[in-house]
From TrEMBL:
It holds the Pfam family Pyr_redox_2. One of its GO terms (biological process) is sulfide oxidation, using sulfide:quinone oxidoreductase. This is TIGR01244 family phosphatase. The lineage of its organism: Bacteria, Pseudomonadati, Pseudomonadota, Gammaproteobacteria, Oceanospirillales. PANTHER family: SULFIDE:QUINONE OXIDOREDUCTASE, SULFIDE:QUINONE OXIDOREDUCTASE, MITOCHONDRIAL. It comes from Marinomonas profundi. Residues 121-240 form the FAD/NAD(P)-binding domain. Signal peptide: none annotated. Its cofactor is FAD. InterPro entries: BLH_phosphatase-like, FAD/NAD-bd_sf, FAD/NAD-binding_dom, Prot-tyrosine_phosphatase-like, Sulphide_quinone_reductase. The keyword Flavoprotein applies. Keywords: FAD, Flavoprotein, Oxidoreductase, Quinone, Transit peptide.
Amino acid sequence: MLRKQITENFSVSEQITLNDVETLAQAGVSLIICNRPDNEEAGQLAFADVKAFAATKNIQAVHIPFSAGQMQDSDVALFKQAIRESHNIHAYCRTGNRSSIIWQAAQQTENSDSQTQNETFDVVIVGAGTAGIATAASILKRQLNTRICLIDPSTNHYYQPGWTLVGGGVFKANTTRRNMSDVIPKNTKWLRESVEHFQPENNTVSLSNGKTIAYKQLVVAAGIKLNWEAIEGLTDTLGYNGVTSNYRYDLAPYTWELTNNLKSGKAIFTQPPMPIKCAGAPQKAMYLSCDHWLKTGRLNKLNVSFYNAGAVLFGVSEYVPALMEYIEKYQVDTHFKHELVKVDGPNKKAFFSCVDEEGNTSIIEESYDMLHVCPPQTTPDFIKNSPLVDNAGWVDVDKETMQHKSFSNIWSLGDVSNTPNAKTMAAVRKQAPVVAQNIVNALQSRQEIAIYDGYGSCPLTVEKGKIVLAEFGYGGVLMPTFPNWLNKGTKATKLAWILKEDLLPSFYWHGMLKGHEWFVKPKMRK
């Protein structure tokens, strides 16, 4: 091994051997980074072998592979994260060149990030999920020279509505993921950091790395926190012992595995108290599983139950009859005012807090063979503890303009805001143009105000090939996109399935995240 020392604490080389790992250990190296893909050439030592042997020497090993000339921003971001956490690092590839190049790129972006401190942006957006990216793209469609900073520590971006279909065996999980660097709009600054504090009186936010970022307009689009820990024993058994959830990228494939393999026994699906994102998702998982069991002749050997902490099957009554047809078709036992509070994975038992007609609370125990959990949900801690929230912990905004009630240059949309709409991607699709238009108006000192009507949509996948497309606004008012003769209103249709399976994913990646506002041009207040 010809080891080239780049700095006192960082070196590179060509492909290493296990003997080289021993040498690096003796030199005090604490982290090895491999920058070449496995099987790049015949006889190449697999990274897994390097990692396993390095672990015996108390050396961490990280794989950040890319082919020559094909380094991506996401590779640099992962490299930066890895080297921040270690002090004596060795990286290797085929010749050492790629490792040198990615090191230089990491240093350049680090210097660029340090120059950002105390810089003022026209717009700072906290959160690069659906709401944050869609808003940034819509702002740039209106005013290309807007200086935007997106703040988000994640390296992955997910199309979360697709996880229902992953759990139903329709999609593969990897089709719902992109590198964050590949979906961040051009002409924006992405800071891969976490926000610690808001200082609305000073128009600044403080980051976990100690930096302070200033803004003219602030957008809070931080999403929602899945509070798995609120259910005793759940985190210890997720992904094992028949416990799954379509609310996580890595668990949705396990939902399909359980559904496909379950031959008999008891399947339980749960829904926590509101608010949650996509209120129909717990039911969607159940319907798709039941449809599979029915079509494979297994449903009559299964006992399927739905435990809902709420009092009704669905919040908009017009859609309940269509859903009840499927509840009866699949012979589902429904239990309302039953909240999952504990899971004993090894013994396959679920515990529910239930309220009887007199208001008395008790704990009941149920055995299961498959348990699909929707976790309780709340705002992220850094939001909950900020000066931006209402008494319930959600960002306090006007439900029509999405403008903060106390700070006129702060806006919020998506799951983290307190607007009384369904927390769905479809809601964000309408909210983002409203926020974008109002921000551009504010930057240009115009008085016009765009308004959001509360639209949300929940495509309820009641069987493979049919969906009840629930569309409604504030107060549960029905707001169908298509005429009843085309979509049959509140009934299950094949058209809605085609929309969800074939059209919406491409619409999301190539339309919504690019600032295209088909069917959602914002309305202006009269």
